[in-house]
Design a protein that fits this description.
alpha+beta, 576 residues, five-stranded antiparallel beta sheet, WSCD1 protein, Rossmann fold, 18 helices
Length: 576
């Protein structure tokens, strides 16, 4: 009995010691965390300006309506960046300061921006993958497993659309995406990449070589390293047709020799668009060209660049369709992706010139990166890590922004230190009205969605305009002041004249590309980054007070550009 009591007493002593040790460790960790937070608050308080204290506004700002964002800044960090006032404020007319006005952005503002971008990127990932999770539970596999095949990313057998989701890829997601675009086969590789096509790969591999687990579905196989798990998509979604994604490109003058221009042809009495499109899709070509009873398949080339269409002339197009004169042809875009410009890689040697792709948020930076990557064949980097973009194929997102393994680096920064780190920069400028709306959409609905009516009518919108409009102006002005070598590109010019402007950008990056590759980029100009979903209704989100403020910024930036011997802002920026 005494022996048992002694063992119990020994056990209790050990337990007490263990509890005491755990409690002490817990208290020490909490104290360290508290001290760290206190130090951070003290540092920010010593650097920043009190929320209720207005900064002096220079005379130059009063004449153009510029507001220093620090006067609008909220003391609360996080996604509600730079929200401070209830209504738009005009600068005080009697306050004077040095002529540096918008150039003096402090480190606290830039830290808040970085924190906002990082936090927002992580917050948006669950939103953008919510649909994928739902599909995983509601959609059954529609295809039949064919087998494991060899996969070469440079010479792909499945030459249709390509999709990436490096976190949530499933077999059902890939099959659904390929079926929606009327492809016959869906293939998965590396656990996260989806390829579509109409021709079965020729080289089969051992079944055990397809051993990569799907990133978004445990227990399912999504190919392997240089291996494809291929499924035959037997059924399309209810109500879908194989030609439902065919897009009419226009009526164009036919080349002199159609047979030499297009690699595949078909002559069919009573030829229809559906017949020609399905024929060209099976042949893995992105264009279906119809002239009378002739169907031709191919790519945009120097001999047939798809420019100067005659779509407005109904008689000519009708003549092309009925083979009245044979000088014109109808052109349709098939669901097949033009793959001549989809191969991308990191630079084999570190770049000697450190180039920035700089823009205000919402100015089309992601779209410009898509164009640059497909035109040059090299990945672009980013000053931030956006998980949503990385999951969609921008692999440079995960590479360190100073690695110099990417052709250029995306940045929204505008501080003197950040700007002078780059040797040169492409400065992308967009109409501030459009930029503010695009960034507001991204803030509340991600890269591809639209903000709701509730968001637009909330207090967030005027606060957003009040703070971000000055950032649009200061971003351009600071890059003009501190940038070493600049190429100014206006988003609207790039959209209207894609090939000439893209040539300028590629030459600025010191990369040589072929005409066919640029035409391929033009053929895939939108990529996967067009907004979808319920677009906001036709309404004017900007009040007259907002317009007055933004218009002053526009005039200031236009004058600064002309002062540096650049062309001014496009006419559509003119105050409305």
């Amino acid at each position: 009995m005494a022996k048992a009591f002694f063992r119990l007493q020994k056990f209790l002593r050990r337990t007490q010691f263990l509890l005491f040790f755990l409690t002490a460790a817990y208290l020490m960790a909490g104290s360290l965390l508290l001290l760290q937070r206190t130090r951070l608050v003290i540092q920010q308080g010593s650097r920043g300006t009190p929320a209720n204290q207005a900064l002096p506004v220079p005379d130059e700002m009063t004449r153009v309506g510029i507001i220093d964002p620090r006067t609008l800044q909220s003391p609360r960090p996080g996604p509600r960046l730079l929200v401070g006032t209830d209504a738009l404020q005009e600068p005080a007319l009697d306050q004077r300061h040095s002529p540096h006005w918008l150039m003096s952005r402090n480190s606290e503002l830039r830290q808040l921006r970085r924190r906002w971008f990082h936090r927002f990127s992580s917050d948006q990932e669950p939103l953008q993958t919510a649909g994928l999770k739902a599909m995983k539970h509601t959609t059954e596999h529609k295809g039949t497993y064919v087998g494991c095949f060899t996969h070469d990313s440079r010479e792909r057998t499945l030459k249709g659309a390509v999709f990436y989701d490096l976190r949530k890829m499933t077999v059902a997601h890939c099959q659904e995406a390929c079926a929606e675009r009327a492809y016959s086969y869906a293939g998965l590789a590396y656990g996260a990449e989806c390829y579509c096509g109409n021709t079965l790969p020729a080289a089969a591999s051992k079944p055990q070589e397809c051993n990569s687990e799907c990133k978004g579905e445990k227990g399912s196989v999504c190919g392997g390293v240089n291996r494809l798990s291929v499924y035959r998509v037997e059924e399309l979604r209810a109500g879908a047709r194989r030609w439902r994604n065919v897009i009419y490109r226009g009526c164009f003058r036919a080349p002199e020799n159609l047979t030499d221009t297009f690699p595949a042809s078909l002559i069919q009495p009573n030829l229809t668009v559906e017949m020609c499109s399905e024929f060209c899709s099976k042949k893995e070509f992105p264009l279906a060209v119809i002239r009378g009873q002739e169907c031709h398949c191919g790519f945009p080339t120097g001999r047939f660049p798809l420019r100067e269409g005659e779509g407005a002339d109904g008689l000519r197009c009708s003549g092309a369709r009925n083979a009245a004169d044979g000088k014109y042809c109808l052109v349709y875009q098939t669901p097949v992706q033009d793959t001549r410009c989809t191969d991308r890689k990191f630079l084999t040697t570190k770049s000697k010139v450190f180039v920035a792709l700089s823009s205000f948020p919402g100015a089309g930076n992601t779209w410009a990166r898509h164009l640059i990557e497909h035109a040059t064949g090299y990945y672009t980097g980013s000053y931030y890590f956006d998980g949503a973009l990385y999951n969609k194929g921008f692999k440079g997102e995960k590479d360190h922004w100073r690695s110099r393994r990417t052709i250029c680096v995306k940045t929204h920064e505008s501080g003197k230190t950040e700007i002078e780190m780059f040797d040169s920069a492409i400065l992308l400028i967009r109409n501030p009205y459009k930029s503010l709306m695009a960034e507001f959409n991204r803030k509340y609905a991600g890269h591809l969605g639209y903000a709701t009516d509730r968001n637009w009518k909330s207090k967030e919108w005027p606060d957003f305009v009040n703070s971000y409009a000055s950032w649009w102006a200061s971003h351009v002005l600071e890059w003009l002041k501190y940038g070493k070598r600049l190429l100014i590109v206006h988003y609207e010019d790039l959209k209207q004249s894609l090939i000439p402007k893209l040539k300028e950008m590629v030459e600025f990056l010191n990369v040589t590309v072929t005409e066919d590759r640029l035409l391929c980029v033009e053929n895939n100009r939108d990529g996967n980054f067009k907004r979808s979903g319920a677009k906001q209704k036709n309404f004017e989100p900007f009040t007259q007070e907002m317009k007055d403020l933004i218009n002053r910024y526009i005039l200031t930036v236009d004058e600064a550009l002309r002062g540096r011997n650049f062309s001014g802002l496009p006419r559509e920026y003119v105050p409305r």
